[in-house]
């Protein structure tokens, strides 16, 4: 009952005219930028972090959530019409969606993707509202040793999940942890790793790192590949609406995709890739027309898109309740909270209850806005695909630089932004994931503080970390998650040598 009353209060906040405008701006920008090839929700949120620096915290976080959901919607348009998924989670949508578009059924493909996303996000957001308070009740009992174990799980799972190898993920994480230790030590007041630069005494700004790695690095990388002749989008022919047969074949995949996507998205290292591929496999096995798969089966669009958007809502569960980001976009959204000195976690629901329930309520509203906007405006989204890439990424460079300098005008900040842009380019060039670096910068100081507080309470005895069952279990999970990828890779190599 408390959840319901909190949600009602959240809706009272979310329907305020200013917050409705923030939500509308978020879903419009998110969809528009999500449609553009190579620009996903993570880059979009990172790009807008410095712009929203001086806005009201509640309004800007509502806008970020709208961008997140809008980017998920927009990614399906690119995947279907251009066969160029902006994010890895949209790869499965492209398999059948692009085939449907080439067969003249791009309209129904876009429609089932939009409606499936709406249904999944609606159900999953309700799940978020119900599940979050129970997790918070458990998490508020955590001691510093438990928080340290939780941070270890976050570090290991994010590093193991993103990128082509766990070692590269750990390298990216180490870079972020090193940056996170820069500045004044909160416990001793001593300067650490500042190299005599006064501008580093306050530490590295999360927004500067996120914008540099995501936006500037992506622009450099695209320029280096000389992608000046992208594939032309397939025009949407005929009716955009679905036939009765399309509805009949879509509604069950929508529900199944939701059931698959939400719990996996809520797990550390769950992400959106696993549920989308799982949904596609299940729909292929359950389809009454399996022969259509590979040639444009509507179930192959409906199920994965529902799973994709349900997992997006699922990632907000550990982010809001435990402060754990399980996707690149969630990591950047964590940076969005931190720029207002708000730390997601169990205390968020007590210290900023109005903000968090207003955010949850705004997700419902943003979802309705997206459904209303997406289908009628599909012609405009398709025209966005015609923007030349040099113009697009030159605009991103200007926008990112101006936004960062507006938030923190200094030469040091501009040099850091440029340096992080170069690092971001190198990381993309050699396939190092970016999200672990952002997570390391944000959670590194928190893990450092939790570890040192634990050692202070035990008079320097490190055994305190494993004396409590909860922290011992979490550290054990982190160790298993760290070792398992290397063990499996070694076994696979051993079997290949035997063959």
From TrEMBL:
The chain crosses the membrane at residues 20-49, 61-82, 109-135, 147-167, 206-223, 316-335, 355-379, 391-412, 432-451, 472-492. Pfam families: TctA. The keyword Membrane applies. Keywords: Membrane, Transmembrane, Transmembrane helix. It comes from Sinorhizobium medicae (strain WSM419). It comes from the Bacteria. PANTHER family: TRICARBOXYLIC TRANSPORT PROTEIN (PTHR35342:SF5). This is DUF112 domain-containing protein. InterPro entries: DUF112_TM. Residues 20-438 form the DUF112 domain.
